[in-house]
Every structure is written in C-alpha cells, then in structure tokens.
Amino acid sequence: MPDFALLAVFIPTFFFVSITPGMCMTLAMTLGMSIGVRRTLWMMLGELVGVALVATAAVMGVASIMLNYPEVFQIFKWVGGIYLGFIGVQMWRARGKMAMLSDDDTNPRASNLTLISQGFITAIANPKGWAFMVSLLPPFINAEREVAPQLLALLSIIMVTEFTSMLAYASGGKSLRIFLSRGDNIRWLNRIAGSLMIGVGVWLAMS
C-alpha cells in the first residue's frame, strides 16, 4: 500500500482530473442519453480495461527505470513535474468547452462488442492519457516497497473513480449537460483540477 499521506494527495487529484469533462465523460453522458445507462456500461467496461492497461504499463515502465537507472529517474522526476505543471496551466487556460463527438459515437444500434471496443480505444489511443499516467502515477510508488501491492491500490482507486465519474455522467443526462453548459462551471472544474496538477508537479520536482 502507498503511504496514507500520498493517498491523501492522489485521491483528490485524480478525482478532479477524472470528473473534468473530456472525451470519455462526454461519451458516457451522450450514450447514456441515447442508448440508456445499462447499455452504456459496456462502453465503460472497455474504457476501464484500457485505463488499467495504460496505468499498468506506465507504472511498470517507470518502475523499471527507477530500479535500474536511479540517475535517469531523477531527471525523469523533473521532466514529469514540469509536464504536470504544464497540464495544470493548460487546464486553467481552458475555455470550458465539452468534447465534441461524431455521430458514429452515439449510434443507438451499436452492438455490445462495439461499445466495449469504443471505450477501450478511446482510453488507449489518447497520447495525453499516456503522458498523464506516466507523469502522475510513478511519484506515488515507493521504490523501497514492493511495487505490485502499491500498483494494485492505485489501480483500485483509479477504477472506482473512473467508473463513478462515468456513471454520474451517463445518469445525469440532460440535467448534467445543462449544468455544465451554464456559466463557468466547466472552467471552475478545470481550474480546481489544474491547481492540483500544478501542486503535484511542484511537489514531484522538489521531492
């Protein structure tokens, strides 16, 4: 298990990043309105598998560098911290628009396998998602402890957070769309997530 102090930082940071409207959350909301929450669960399954794969690959790859090339890992920490700070600044500067989806993404006749594939591809084909996982997860891994239990704990948090966020978007439907389209609601979500990302980036670079 990671330290409780690290978890206290990781949980709110990942929660606000996850709940911020992006392609997966917008897809869950749109599918929830067009094909229903129950069928949208198939897309969520594919997305969760994809996120788990990306997170595992990110942690294992960086853990290998951490154990075999500690000097390189120190450089990686600085680069990762700077990148997280960059993401945070970009979130602050975001105009608060929701991701746009094509008509194919909301096809009510799509099979369950198509929905699973849709969620999986959305999760693994996003280069920003890979960069985010590579930058964010490794700082919460303690090299002096076994990697597997720590990875399992972080993955559990990620899976629960992602599923809860997508379920909220899929269930919220039109009411949630109206809420997010009003005023600066999305912008404030971006700013909260961005502030947390900047804080984690500074902590990573200085630790």
From TrEMBL:
Keywords: Cell membrane, Membrane, Transmembrane, Transmembrane helix. The chain crosses the membrane at residues 6-29, 41-69, 75-92, 113-141, 147-168, 188-206. It comes from the Bacteria. Coiled coil: none annotated. It is found in: Cell membrane. The keyword Transmembrane applies. The keyword Membrane applies. One of its GO terms (cellular component) is plasma membrane. Pfam families: LysE. It is a multi-pass membrane protein. This is LysE family translocator. It comes from Shewanella septentrionalis. The lineage of its organism: Bacteria, Pseudomonadati, Pseudomonadota, Gammaproteobacteria, Alteromonadales.
